[in-house]
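Q: Convert this sequence to structure tokens.
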Amino acid sequence: MNDTPASERLHIGFFGRCNSGKSSLINALTGQSVAVVSDIAGTTTDPVSKAMELPGLGACLLTDTPGFDDTGALGPQRIERTLRAADRTQIAVLLFGEGDCAAELDWLGQFRAREIPVIAVLAQCDRLTDPARAARAVEERTALPPLCVSAATGQGIEELRRALAAVQRDEPREITAGVAEQGDTVLLVMPQDAQAPKGRLILPQVQTIRELLDKECTTICCTPQGMSAALAALARPPKLIVTDSQAFEAVYRQKPAASRLTSFSVLFARYKGDIDAFTDGAAAIGRLTPSSRVLIAEACTHAPRTEDIGRVKLPAMLRKKIGAELRVDVVSGADFPDDLTPYDLVIHCGACMFNRRHVLNRIARARAQSVPITNYGVAIAALIGILDRIEY
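A:
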């Protein structure tokens, strides 16, 4: 509970050509050997992330990416992974050098299209023949005054730290904003089945409990089997009931009329994504036919289990309603198709392992291709006919 999850950290990505000095810059910024440094092009073969606490920035995740000009045998795959790292980047540090900067300008355009703040850096300035001239050229092409930085001499490192700290970031968001207020009584219904990790709770449950405690809410936890006893022990009905989405139907049947109902997945749909896009996307469930195709996207990667909600239970619910011939594909982690047009609907998990920018980028990709997208909890509520009777 005391460690900040990667999904809640500020994601800072370092982007540039091979041997542009990304790894050295990260090491200088952190004061640690976070990234491997070598004169051999292509040393960084995959994005490498390091969780850090930096002055003025707090909890961060610094990501060193492969060079976006990699021409080796695995170059295209490495560039693809750099693109995927950009999906979750909240601040981009873009490294420039002397001479042609067409590739850097292309990436700058991509960051601006995604509304990702960019800090331009003239890296390895101790090696440049005319740093001032190079800086003027970069500013003329980008309208960004670059920071002249040298990992070898330490020049500009403190200025880079201040520039990162000065970037305007989104206001902090609340998981339970608008559904739980100071001092409310909240009942959390949490199945402890094969999916529940032994000896601990899953991240959305932990984060929700912590936020409710910070609000001085009276927070009661139970399993679906213990829900009736938990309700009986209370002097009056809880203001809010939050359940695991797979227990929606059973919990809805037992909930007092005075209690509002939602799920952890629905709360995270609001917290991490765009709830309007997800509720709009749920309408596509009514248009599915046995010949339709659905993509289920999980943020985390784990071995499939017999009670898995994304790989087993949700597909079973969809096929029961639509037809056994319905095709359901599942992807996990960073895997997410560039081309979503073969699908009639995308159903995304609560994305507790992703930051909000990552989820919004996936929503934007689906919208750009006119493919409806929804969320586990929203989809399950729609499938059992209670979407208009839950809180979202």
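The chain is about 35% helix and 20% strand.
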